[in-house]
Specification:
This protein is an alpha+beta fold. It has a single domain, classed as 2-Layer Sandwich (Alpha-Beta Plaits), CATH 3.30.70.1290. It contains four helices and four strands. The chain has a four-stranded antiparallel sheet with strand order 2-3-1-4, with helices on both faces. The longest helix is centred in the middle third of the chain and has 20 residues. The N and C termini lie far apart (about 40 Å).
Amino acid sequence: MARKLRVEYPGAIYQVMNRGDRRQPIFKDVLDRRRFLETLGEACAKTSWQVQAYGLMGNHFHLVLELETPKANLVAGMKWFPGTSTSRFNRRHKFCGHLFSGRYKALIVDDSAKDAGRGTEAARLVGRGIGGATQRGSGKGENRPAIAK
């Protein structure tokens, strides 16, 4: 049976999440978190995504992304981003294989939340630490302004 197609449209806000393969950690140290965010910054530059919020937990991540492009490109960007993150993680730690467990999950944030403040509802959920404590822009050397426009 074929997978359901993802709903994409310009200006959409998504809460995107993925977890480590076999629920293993996807970050071993602060440098892994920095590299993940640098790679996310590159993905934003390639796709014109805007990161409204993010949460980096030990074995998974949450992103609130707004598509700021006339072409809906969540799928195209998410083909590049997790693969590149995995390659960089594996190269650094001399690992091979999957870093993430299967397909990422992307939920569309309700348009009323967008009107109320550009993804505030999803940002509030990420800020609350869905699934664990969050690490946001001011923590552990991460630099959110480098990602958000």
